[in-house]
């Protein structure tokens, strides 16, 4: 593989639901396009909230993307000479955390700027292993916050609701959804669901 000048790097954009992760990713990609750098964006096939083949923020910003299942799909789809690779909702990739980190590092070692966005915590307020692994090897980590719907403080948790109540901790970790399923909450207003 050809190594690009300027070296590669990994950037992680993380935070809770509604913190603007995808919006920030798209903002960075708009700068990449203005700089006329070669770019490929990817979105996991598990993220079914919006039209397939696009990165879409909750406020409607979007950029074209390739839908993939795993990090192997991404690494194999990036041709030599690509300068920037973007991965949205990285926690939805169907690969183990070490494989995702290794794949991102492989791209960065080839001189690619790899920008990933994803949830840092699941609905149980436990770290997403995929994002934690990436944060450990990244050159840059930006943690964003939302606004708590209960008190207006900075929100860092994604409260999953089922029939208006906190989802039980026995619920599956992955449940794709938006406002109909999640609220941004601060540490104090976050509720622990019971089984």
| Radius of gyration, in angstroms, nearest whole number | 17 Å
Helix content: 10-25%
Unreliable spans are none
Shape: globular
Give the CATH class: Alpha Beta
User: Based on helices, strands and strand pairing, what is the structural class?
Assistant: alpha/beta
In which order are the strands of the major sheet placed? 5-2-6-7-1-8
Report, as a whole number of angstroms, the end-to-end distance: 50 Å
Structure description:
With 195 residues, the chain is an alpha/beta fold. It has a single domain, classed as P-loop containing nucleotide triphosphate hydrolases (Rossmann fold, 3-Layer(aba) Sandwich). It is 22% helix and 28% strand. It is built from 4 helices and 13 strands. The protein has helices spanning 21-34, 71-77, 97-109, 129-137, and strands at 9-15, 39-44, 54-56, 62-64, 66-68, 84-87, 113-119, 140-144, 146-147, 154-155, 157-162, 165-166, 182-185. The strands form 4 sheets. It has a 6-stranded parallel β-sheet, with helices on both faces. A 3-stranded antiparallel β-sheet has the order 12-11-13, with no helix packed on it. Strand 3 (54-56) and strand 4 (62-64) form a beta hairpin. Helix 2 packs parallel to helix 3 and helix 3 (97-109) runs parallel beside helix 4. It starts with 8 loop residues before the first strand and ends in a 10-residue tail after the last strand. The mean pLDDT is 88.
